[in-house]
Amino acid sequence: MNLHTSPEGTSARTSFAVLNPATAKAVGHAPNNTLADLDAAVARAQTAFQTWSQTPDADLQAYCTKVAEAIGTHAEELAQLVTQEQGKSLNGLGSRWEIGGAQAWAGYTASLSLPVKTLQDTDQGRVELHRKPLGVVGSITPWNFPVMIAVWHILPALRTGNTVVVKPSPFTPLATIRLVEIMQSVLPANVVQVVTGDDKDINLGAAMSAHEGIRKIVFTGSCATGRRVMQTAADTMKRLTLELGGNDAGIVLPDADPAAIAEGLFWGAFINNGQTCAAMKRLYVHTSIYDAVCEHLVAFAKTIPVGDGQDERSILGPIQNQKQFDKVARLVEAAKTKGRVLLGGQAGEGLFYPPTIIADLDASDLLVSEEQFGPALPVIRYSDLDEAIAAANASENGLGGSIWTSDIVKGRALANRLECGSVWINKHGAIQPNAPFGGVKQSGLGVEFSEEGLAEYTDIQVVFS
Predict the structure, then answer these.
(1) Annotated catalytic, 243?
(2) If DSSP codes are grouped into helix, strand and coil, which group holds residue 349?
(3) Which spans in 211-343 are helix H?
(4) Rounded to the nearest 5°, which phi and psi values hold at 366?
(5) Do 41 and 5 contact (CB within 8 A), yes or no?
(6) Which among 244, 273, 299 is the end of a domain?
(7) Are residues 276 and 151 in the same domain?
(8) Where's the Aldehyde dehydrogenase domain (predicted)?
(9) 19: part of which helix (H) or strand (E)?
(10) Are residues 161 and 289 in the same domain?
(11) Same domain, 173 and 59
(12) Which of 21, 114, 366, 396 would bridge with 131, disulfide CB 3.0–4.6 Å?
């Protein structure tokens, strides 16, 4: 696939290759847009905003519903593109699942609304709270869920009357370009646009964060990059939604059933090959069932086929890029000097790395203290629950966490002691569009999803009469 098309009226003449991580072969090319291209896209978005922001709410909702339907119409095409450039499997919790989720999220977001709220209506006067669109929203998306996260960014912006310029990761731009084309087919001109670049000579993301014509940045990615986005956005006082990294902990209580929770533990940690912000990155298991949990977890992991994502039999694919592969390999090699390798631990060919489980580690090990963002899970033994909770909280991150127990009431009570934005009982990472999602501490700023996430794309105006 060759996508040399630049935003309408721009001057990009060069492109960069996009590689399939399973084969290391080019699957297409994307435009290497310039700063002038970005300026032109923002200017068009500002012009489009003048009309789009005045569109009646019912019409905004109808447009967003059309976007959701269009994603469904092109679901298989988008899934194939995601697998080719991202590497994840078509099946399992792979590309088809991602596109299905993107369509569902778009549809649910279309159904939301932020009606005028009456704060006072008395003889002394009427006071109303209105939610007004911001302007041009800049969306910077990562490579792990290129379509779903783009939908998470774009749909609430559209639903609230904003226009959008989206910049995908240089590792996975093709599906986002096609997604925007699909959206453009049912939306007015220039309401949604895309700019792409390889980030080698020009950092379009940094330019967007500093751009005077962009009123809000929504960014999903690493904590380090999120801090830079926040810094460069400060001069223009941009609104920010930052969903950043996590080092999520799962805590297995002594009353849990090792056989019953094995599948949930595996997918909590290894969804998208572990390349998920809210995946479980550390697993604390009570000593009384430690060996049994390890045994059942490894047994389930051995049933999961790993291979080229385009092979219909594959459930997990390769790590997406060399830099991430090298990080996982480094952390695993360090862990092997102290821990006990229960599964995996040796790199495969190319960017393939098998699901790896390493037992008997502690907080001093890098695989525990750093976010690996890949298919490697450290298992830590504990005997005192208070100490396990303290260890889980001893992180600068606070995205998600989980409690695994046969006593749901006890699990809910313990959830309040975890320092993170989302807590799951007997599952991990199960986000949904009707529940706000965001991190505490250095895992982000603001929330996404539901009415709370929708409101982040608006300014408040209070009218007194």
Answers:
(1) yes
(2) coil
(3) 223-233, 258-270, 290-301, 322-336
(4) -65, -30
(5) no
(6) 244
(7) no
(8) 13-463
(9) strand 15-19
(10) no
(11) yes
(12) 114
Query: By CB neighbour count within 10 A (0-12 exposed, 13-18 middle, 19+ buried), where does 65 fall?
Result: middle
d(CA 147, CA 168) in angstroms, rounded, equals 9
Which among 85, 98, 243, 371 is annotated as catalytic?
A: 243
- Residue 46, pLDDT above cutoff 90: yes
Separation between Cα atoms, residue 197 and residue 32, nearest integer Å:
4
- Whether residue 319 is found in the same domain as residue 207: no
**132 within domain boundaries:** yes
Shared-domain flag, residues 167 and 298: no
Please write the tens of the pLDDT for every residue from 19-31. 999 999 999 999 9
What is the value of pTM for the model shown? 0.96
Domain shared by 218 and 318, yes or no: no
| Cβ proximity of 302 and 253 under 8 Å | no
Q: Looking at the domain assignment, is residue 453 inside a domain? A: no
Same domain, 71 and 85: yes
At residue 195, the pLDDT reads 98
Residue 117 tokens read as: 């709220």
Asked if the structure places residue 46 within a domain, the reply is yes
- Cβ atoms of 71 and 78 within 8 Å: the answer is yes
- Asked whether residue 77 falls in the same domain as residue 198, the answer is yes
Contact 445, 242 (CB under 8 A): yes
Q: Is residue 458 part of a domain?
A: no
Q: What is the CATH number of the domain that holds 65?
A: 3.40.605.10
Alpha helices in 74-187 (DSSP H): 75-86, 95-111, 148-159, 174-184
For 287-411, strand residue ranges (E) read 340-343, 356-359, 376-382, 400-404
**Exposed / middle / buried, residue 287 (Cβ in 10 Å: 0-12, 13-18, 19+):** exposed
Q: Which long-range contacts (CB under 8 A, 24 or more apart) does 231-237 make?
A: 232/206, 233/209, 235/210, 236/210, 236/211, 236/212
H or E stretch including 67? helix 57-73
Q: Which of the listed residues 244, 265, 295 is the one where a domain comes to its end?
A: 244
Give the count of beta carbons closer than 10 Å to the beta carbon of residue 186: 16
pLDDT digits (tens, 9 = 90+) for 339-381: 999 999 999 999 999 999 999 999 999 999 999 999 999 999 9
Q: Are 40 and 10 spatial neighbours (Cβ–Cβ below 8 Å)?
A: yes
